[in-house]
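Person: Show me a sequence?

Helper:
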Amino acid sequence: MNKYKFLSQYTLSDSKVIRVKKFNDAIIPEYWKRIFEAKTFENKKAILLSEWKQILASELSNTIAYLETYLKGIEFIQVDKEFYMVYTILSYQTEKTLYYVGGNPMSSTLNASSFLLKQWNDLPNPLRAFYEKLHDGFYYYPSRSMGLDETSEVEDFTDFELSEGKLKPFNESETYNFFSTGMGGYVAIDFTNKNKIQTIVWLNGEDVLTTLNFWDAVDEFYIMGFDE
């Protein structure tokens, strides 16, 4: 089965994954255009990783280092009206081929959930830069998890439930999930105190940790996902 048929199995509708051969008048960032026009994979990779480093060099240093070694392919796909960059990653631990996708950052605010738009100006600068300049989400495509969610999927915790008898030690209507593991784990931000926003790491519907750095947690989860 070719890559595009494989990915088409995981769309959320009957839509097919189409390989982009021409962007025409699509609104995409300049660095996407440069990657698309680059003649060799090494040039495409250099452009892409340069962008990651400009935006998140210190925040996601381990993720970037992993991509430097194990990123083996970069392509663009279209699903319905949306464009994505496909990262073909060779897992160091399992030697399996993984397909991660990064959404079009030009769509981030257009597609953002009403939950997230309320807090957009209060996002930490690196997170806002990620969404506005790099990608509208970056996650494992088949499960749509193990990564930063698309802005349309970011929501508060009002409808989330802890295990019986557990209490949420945070303001559920002001806490927004940005990273889902697909196994009941979340990395979220509590915006209750705008002067000191707090990271919430919620593991398997059970333990809630409030002392971790947002990017340290995200960086570690990305490596776990690559090596599953």
Summary: The chain has one domain: 3-152+214-226. DSSP finds eight helices and ten strands in the chain. The CA atoms of residues 70 and 166 lie 40 Å apart.
